[in-house]
Design a protein that fits this description.
There is one protein chain. The protein has 2 domains: 160 residues, FAD/NAD(P)-binding domain; 240 residues, D-Amino Acid Oxidase, subunit A, domain 2 (D-Amino Acid Oxidase, Chain A, domain 2, 2-Layer Sandwich), CATH 3.30.9. Helices cover 33% and strands 26% of the residues. The chain contains 10 helices and 20 strands. α1 runs parallel beside α7 and α1 packs parallel to α10. The protein is globular and about 65 Å long. It starts with a strand and ends in a 16-residue tail after the last helix. The model has no long low-confidence stretch (mean pLDDT 96). The protein binds flavin-adenine dinucleotide. Flavin-adenine dinucleotide binds next to α1, β14, β18 and α10.
């Protein structure tokens, strides 16, 4: 069975690998010269299963009003004359209800737990080095309101059988001694032991090599224009102007899945949420953290990759342009240096931004479409690294017609 995987970010590469393991003959296409050159290039590195909570939380509408017009807000909605943005934005806000919030959190948590198991299997099978740290994640925050919110989330996680513990400021410093020098005024934290971190870019390139060993072909500098259909099936994919025919197709184009779907008459409710990252050389200091952290007040995650410290975060809904914004990059730098003032060389920080492919209910879209041989694995938003291996495993089970580990309806396009 010949399969075309469209996109070579972490989602496309994991899809190709898991499909090849099941015996599919896979070709991956991407417009970039290498794998993981777009959103999977320099993300926050967290495998954060306990961060399953949707960004469209019940208090988001109120916060958006408070943050309106503030360029330094953690989440910025810049209204544009774009019907796609309005349609998506309205549905995103309609999903910010208590009931849908916990439903989505449950779906993402189940996928996250499965994904962690799948990642561990890949590590065991392929011996991949990607600066992995399995020390858990410490989430810190500055206000009593955030403490109460985190306590409620921690209780919910505990009720689902997932361990997370609230810590005082002093206990946070015991968990991560590098916090002793912090100048930012965090009041406490929550620590989860099951979470991990590692460089998603290194992982994707190493998994691409493993996929090649299984016979997967990767075609780069390959721009996908459209899919053609005939009698309810996809007939071909047009790459660099040439139609190519396969038995089955998988769409993993990140935020751009929306456009390819639209050309085929499919509505895939994904919109880009831009975020920034900085990578700071540690340069021999022992003032950098060993464990991965989240600065909840600033929406910034921090992960150590060997002698580099990666910090990533903030959210901006402002179309598809991945242009840099120094102010927002500096917000990420301020967050990491507020917690770890001597962690590395701020002047030498490498700056980057990427577009999180966010679905309206903050849950990925995996599985069948109304075209018999077209499948989706896309819309992973802020958790594409965390959910990648489990999503690809689920996709490969669906495409093989096997019994799936999780209820596929939870992730299907039909749920919208
Ligand atoms: C600042 C930031 C921090 C993040 N931190 C974390 C984190 O700590 N943990 C976590 O789990 N997740 C994190 N994420 C989210 C994660 O990075 C994404 O969910 C993930 O990278 C999405 O992967 P993808 O393969 O779906 O998309 P992409 O990596 O964007 O891949 C899509 C691919 O499709 C290709 N493509 C698109 N259109 C075309 C076309 N027409 N023709 C050919 N090729 C095309 C692109 O070139 C690209 O390679 C973060 C994201 C950001 C932006």
């Amino acid at each position: 069975m010949k399969v075309a995987v469209l996109g070579a970010g972490i989602t496309g590469v994991t899809s190709a690998y898991f499909l090849a393991k099941k015996g599919f003959e896979v070709t991956v296409f991407d417009r970039q010269p290498l794998a993981a050159e777009e959103t999977s290039f320099a993300n926050g590195g967290q495998i954060s299963v306990t961060q399953a909570f949707p960004w469209n939380s019940p208090d988001l509408p109120g916060k958006l009003v408070k943050w309106l017009g503030r360029d330094d807000a953690p989440l910025v909605f810049r209204l544009r004359n774009d019907p796609h943005m309005w349609r998506w934005g309205l549905k995103f806000l309609l999903n910010a209800r208590r009931k849908t919030f916990y439903e989505s959190a449950g779906r993402v948590l189940r996928l996250g737990l499965h994904s962690r198991d799948c990642l561990h299997q890949v590590i065991a099978d392929e011996n991949i080095d990607y600066d992995r740290q399995a020390r858990g994640i410490l989430k810190v925050f500055n206000t009593q309101e955030e403490w109460d919110d985190m306590a409620a989330r921690t209780q919910w996680l505990n009720d689902q059988g997932v361990a997370q513990k609230m810590l005082t400021r002093e206990e946070c410093m015991e968990a991560e001694p590098a916090l002793a020098a912090a100048t930012s005024s965090f009041i406490g934290g929550a620590k989860s032991d099951i979470d991990e971190s590692g460089d998603a870019h290194s992982f994707t390139l190493a998994l691409e090599a493993a996929a090649k060993r299984l016979g997967v072909s990767f075609v780069y500098n390959a721009t996908i224009d459209h899919l053609t259909e005939e009698a309810g099936r996809v007939k071909s994919v047009t790459v660099n102007g040439k139609p190519l025919a396969f038995d089955q197709y998988v769409m993993s184009l990140g935020s751009f899945s929306y456009f390819l779907g639209k050309k085929l008459g499919l509505h895939i409710p994904i919109y880009p949420v831009k975020g920034y990252s900085v990578t700071v050389p540690i340069e021999g200091t022992n003032a950098a953290p060993m464990m991965s952290l989240t600065d909840e007040s600033q929406h910034v995650v921090i992960s150590r990759f060997g002698d580099r410290l990666r910090a990533a975060g903030t959210a901006e809904m402002n179309g598809y342009e991945a242009a840099p914004n120094k102010r927002r990059e500096d917000m990420v730098l301020d967050s990491v240096f507020g917690l770890f003032p001597h962690a590395g060389n701020r002047e030498k920080a490498e700056r980057w931004c990427g577009l999180r492919p966010m679905s309206v209910d903050s849950t990925p879209i995996i599985g069948k479409t109304r075209f018999d041989n077209l499948f989706l694995n896309t819309g992973h938003g802020p958790l594409g690294w965390t959910l990648s291996c489990g999503s690809a495993d689920l996709l490969s089970q669906i495409m093989s017609g096997e019994k799936t580990n999780l209820d596929i309806q939870d992730y299907s396009l039909d749920r919208f």
